[in-house]
Design goal:
One of its GO terms (biological process) is proton transmembrane transport. By secondary structure, this protein is mainly alpha-helical. The chain has nine helices and no strands. It starts with a helix and ends in a 6-residue tail after the last helix.
């Protein structure tokens, strides 16, 4: 009986060591940022912590100059992207490997859908009816001015950098003008929500 117990305990210890070895992690010497398709949650958690810390830190700074939190989020994305931190060797390949971006994008789209749904529930249609004329004038002016600036900028850009065989002049002007004049709707919703302007 004692020999059987010892054998059973030895087998249990071997299985425990094997499970711990297969689990991996920092203590076992593995790179926690290594992307594994069988376990994508690990790199996703690292990305989430980095994004939240970056945006919250910037939000505290921008709150002192009374800027919406969404501005800090946009700037945080720029800093974590190829413009700033992405220039650090192997930063993007390690923290934001291309294979992990679909998972991050999926969670971001789910969060965006939920946010837009909650925002729509807070909208008071009566506010838009009372300020219909002002809303139309401001919207048109807010689109025409950036559209004109975009077209003006697109003219020298087209002649300097674009091959006429790849894109027509008119379509290029239209594309640049529309791209500059359209405000990202989710960003606008974030600003209106934070300033409590949807229900007033």
């Amino acid at each position: 009986m004692g020999e059987f117990s010892d054998t059973f305990l030895d087998l249990g210890h071997d299985l425990a060591k094997r499970a711990a070895r297969e689990q991996g992690g920092i203590l076992s010497g593995e790179n926690p940022a290594h992307f594994d398709t069988a376990n994508p949650i690990r790199i996703w958690i690292i990305q989430l912590i980095l994004i939240v810390c970056m945006t919250q830190g910037l939000a505290l700074l921008f709150a002192k100059i009374k800027q919406p939190r969404v501005i800090a989020e946009v700037i945080g994305g720029i800093l974590l992207g190829p413009t700033a931190f992405g220039r650090i060797p192997k930063f993007s390949a390690t923290v934001f490997p291309p294979q992990s971006l679909p998972y991050l994008s999926l969670v971001a789209n789910i969060g965006l859908c939920l946010f837009m749904f909650v925002t729509a529930m807070e909208v008071d249609i009566a506010v838009f009816k009372r300020n219909a004329k002002k809303s139309v004038v401001i919207s048109v002016a807010g689109m025409l001015l950036p559209f004109g600036v975009g077209v003006a900028v697109a003219v020298p850009v087209y002649h300097e950098f674009v091959n006429p065989d790849n894109a027509s002049f008119g379509l290029f002007l239209l594309f640049i003008g529309v791209a500059i004049s359209i405000t990202a709707f989710p960003v606008l919703c974030r600003i209106l929500t934070e300033l409590n302007l949807l229900g007033k």
